[in-house]
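We were asked to recover a plausible sequence for a given structure. The inputs and outputs are reproduced exactly as logged, with field labels preserved.

PROBLEM: sequence recovery
POSITIONS: 433
GIVEN STRUCTURE:
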């Protein structure tokens, strides 16, 4: 028997559990530990609520969770309830799959003003993450700036731009649905410090912006290189750029909101009296390495909300080697040290789609097989249970989660698959015991 603890029950955690289970069947026992009383990490708290088809991948994780040799241990915080050293004592292998839930900071003068919000916080707010329930973003303003040209910037822009009717079928939480419904925002500026050819937005997600009920995307054709140059792009990127170009020909019709794409626009300062009032941007041009170079020309964007979507970081864990500049654990091909591994964004940094985490899981399962032949002497889950009980930890099982999930489905408003509990106490209470 091999005993494995996985920290984090998001995509990287579940793909690792799936790989261990597929490869070793009855010869492995996996404990998936999560600080939340609910599973699935990024799927629940990160993927946009109106992207239910992407969220649907949880069904695959559910199959893994329901197998006998994998168990969910929710409401357990590693570092507070149990240490890495203790886990390494109890399990043959420990896999860190904690994702990258913290914001990369935008280090600019004024970035501490009220109204400047990181995407982790903003996305967490509309997705019902307990830590961000009280965020209360300023939506009583006419304009917002979204900094970054990746898919998270697209998510944030779309959520700010959608009409209430467009959230039918989503699982956006009630507080965000109500606040966005009353939003005064009419102009959303999406800022890229480089040009249209350098965006990190995928075609499907970008294309969506062209079909919103009450908002229209706007680009300046002068920002684009000659159309012939698009042929040099890889096909996915070419498709994205084609969408962008097509935005120049869209008719506004009766749509009231505008999503302005400002390229070659590098934020340099945020100004305001006691809250954000404007963002100061410097125009850039590209050098021969396609890096943004300042031109000295600046302009101001009046706005009362700034959402920074410039990437994420993995939170460090005490005693685990960490690369501060890359915001991830120091590792060699997923190996941190003896018996300690990492997968997903905790290993690679925040890049790639959900499926990109799958090979990580399979890779680590093979490494564990090579490093730890079956027949070890570790105690595994009974040891963890004893330790957590002695510390009074209220362990949440997968069965508990199923009760929470049923209660969320029962609370759902019309057209929504669930109404998530936001407070940890409400999640725990919904177990009904
Ligand atoms: P990302 O794809 O790395 O994009 C980050 C963006 O921030 C880039 O445009 C980058 O510009 C810009 N940026 C970085 N530092 C900046 C600064 N100091 N000032 C101005 N701009 C700055 O990150 P992400 O959008 O957070 O997405 C993370 C991952 O999740 C990606 O792999 C993404 O595809 C994935 N994701 C996928 C979906 C989906 O499939 N639906 C949804 C959300 C996220 P430069 O290029 O100039 O550095």
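RECOVERED SEQUENCE:
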């Amino acid at each position: 028997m091999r005993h494995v603890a996985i920290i984090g029950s998001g995509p990287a955690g579940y793909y690792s559990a799936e790989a261990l289970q597929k490869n070793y069947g009855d010869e492995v026992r996996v404990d998936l530990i999560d600080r939340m009383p609910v599973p699935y990490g990024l799927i629940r708290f990160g993927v946009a609520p109106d992207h239910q088809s992407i969220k649907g991948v949880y069904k695959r994780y559910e199959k893994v969770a329901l197998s006998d040799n994998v168990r969910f241990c929710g409401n357990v915080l590693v570092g507070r309830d149990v240490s890495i050293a203790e886990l390494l004592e109890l399990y043959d292998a420990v896999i860190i799959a904690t994702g990258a839930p913290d914001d990369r900071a935008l280090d600019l003068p004024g970035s501490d003003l009220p109204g400047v919000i990181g995407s982790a916080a903003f996305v967490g707010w509309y997705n019902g993450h307990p830590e961000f329930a009280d965020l209360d973003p300023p939506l009583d303003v006419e304009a917002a700036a979204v900094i970054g040209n990746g898919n998270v910037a697209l998510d944030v822009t779309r959520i700010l731009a959608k009409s209430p009717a467009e959230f039918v079928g989503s699982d956006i939480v009630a507080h965000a649905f109500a606040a966005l419904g009353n939003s005064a925002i009419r102009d959303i500026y999406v800022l890229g410090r480089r040009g249209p050819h350098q965006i990190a937005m995928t075609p499907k997600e970008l294309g969506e912006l062209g079909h919103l009920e009450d908002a229209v995307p706007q680009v300046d054709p002068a920002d684009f290189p000659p159309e012939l140059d698009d042929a040099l792009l890889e096909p996915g990127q070419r498709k994205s750029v084609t969408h962008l170009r097509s935005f120049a020909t869209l008719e506004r019709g009766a749509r009231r909101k505008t999503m302005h794409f400002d390229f070659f626009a590098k934020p340099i300062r945020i100004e305001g009296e006691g809250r954000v009032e404007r963002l100061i941007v410097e125009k850039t041009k590209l050098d021969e390495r396609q890096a943004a170079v300042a031109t000295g020309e600046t302009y101001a964007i009046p706005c009362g909300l700034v959402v920074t979507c410039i990437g994420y970081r993995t939170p460090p864990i005490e005693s685990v080697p960490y690369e501060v500049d890359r915001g991830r654990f120091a590792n060699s091909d997923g190996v941190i040290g003896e018996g300690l591994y990492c997968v997903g964004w905790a290993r690679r940094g925040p890049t790639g789609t959900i499926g990109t985490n799958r090979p990580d899981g399979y890779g680590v399962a093979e490494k564990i097989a090579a490093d730890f032949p079956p027949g070890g002497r570790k105690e595994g889950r009974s040891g963890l249970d004893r330790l957590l009980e002695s510390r009074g930890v209220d362990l949440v099982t997968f069965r508990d989660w199923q009760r929470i999930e049923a209660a969320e489905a029962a609370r759902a408003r019309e057209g929504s698959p669930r109404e998530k509990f936001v407070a940890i106490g409400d999640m725990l209470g919904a177990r009904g015991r």
